Amino acid sequence: MAAEHRQLTEGMTEAGYRRLVEGAPDGICVYVDRRVVFVNDAGVRLMRARSRDQIIGRPVTDFVVAESLPAMYSGVAGLRDVGDCTVAHPAQMIRMDGSLLAVEIVVVLTGWDGERAYQVITRDVSARQEADNALRYQAALVNHVSDAIIGTTKSGVVTSWNPAAEAIYRRSAADARGCPISELVGAAVDPEAIIASDGVAHSTHRSADGAQRDVRVSAAAMEDGYVFVCCDLTKLRRAEQQFEAIVASMAEGVVLIGKDGRIKSINPAAIEIMGGTGPEYIGVDFFAITDQFPFYDADGVNIPPPHRPALAVLRHGVPFYN
C-alpha cells in the first residue's frame, strides 16, 4: 500500500495534467470514485457539452450506456499499477443532447492529487463504423444480385467472383480466383474498349459446361484493376427470338413505331399488305406512308388520316381495339 500511495502522490496535479492533454485529438476524462474530475476540450466537443461544468462532478455512468458498463468495469478491475491500461473495446456514449455515439475506449490507472484515479481515452469511431456498415451492405448486395460481378487486376487476373458469377459461368469462386477472366468466360475481355464505348458492350460468353451465354458487360476502372458486371441476357434473348418468330409467322400485319411515328420493325404480313420488300420501311414515318391508303371502320366508312387509330393511340396513349 505504501508503494501505491507513493505512486499516486507522484501522479499529476490537475494543472500539469491539463497542459499535457488539452491538445489531444481524442476525448480524455479522469474520474475519481466514479465521478468525473477532469475532461479535455476534445471530450467536451465529443459530448456536445457547452462547457466542462456540464460534465465535471457527474458520475461517469451518466455518459455510458448500461450495456457498455460491464466490459468497462471488467477491464478496470484488472488494473493493478499506475500506468496499467485496458485493451481498447467498443462502447456507446450518451451525449448531452441524448444522442448515442459509437466510440472505442481505453482506461488507464493513474493518480489525481494523491488519489487513485482512472483516465478514460475516448475515440470517436462512428465514421469508421458507418464505413464498415456501408462495406458490409455493399458486400451483401454483391452477394445477392443476379448479375455476375467480377473483380480483376490490371492484367485481367480475377480477384473476386460473386455467387451470381458462379451460377452463370458454372465455376466456383475458389476455382476462378487467380485465373484470367478471358479464360473463365470463354471470350476476349477488353476493359479499355468497353469503357471507351460508354462502359457497356454486348458479347457471347461460355460457361464451364460449354453453354453459350448472351451477356451485357459493363466495366469500370478501379485503382488497382477493373470491375465487370455481366448481365446474363440468354433467357431474354431466347424469349425475344421466340416472340420474333411468332410475329413473323402471323397473318396479321404488325408494325412497331416509336413516339416520333417512325417505323422500328415490321413483320412480313405488314410488308405484303403495304407493298415493298421491307428494309426500306425501317426509320420511315409510318403516317406519311399510310396516309395514302384508305382505312375503313367496321361499317366500311373511310377514316380520315387525322382520326386514324394509330395516330390517336400515339397522341393519347389509350389502346384501340377493332
Task: Describe this structure as you would to a colleague.
The protein has 13 helices and 12 strands. The chain is elongated and about 110 Å long. With 322 residues, it is an alpha+beta fold.
In N-to-C order, the SSE pattern is: HHEEHHEEEHEEHHHHEEEHEEHHH
Largest sheet: 5 strands, antiparallel
- Structurally, the number of domains stands at 3
Helicity level:
25-40%
Spatial arrangement of strands, main beta sheet:
2-1-5-4-3
Work out the number of β strands: 12
Low-confidence stretches: 1-11
Q: CATH homologous superfamily name of the largest domain?
A: PAS domain
Give the count of helical stretches: 13
> What would you call the shape?
elongated
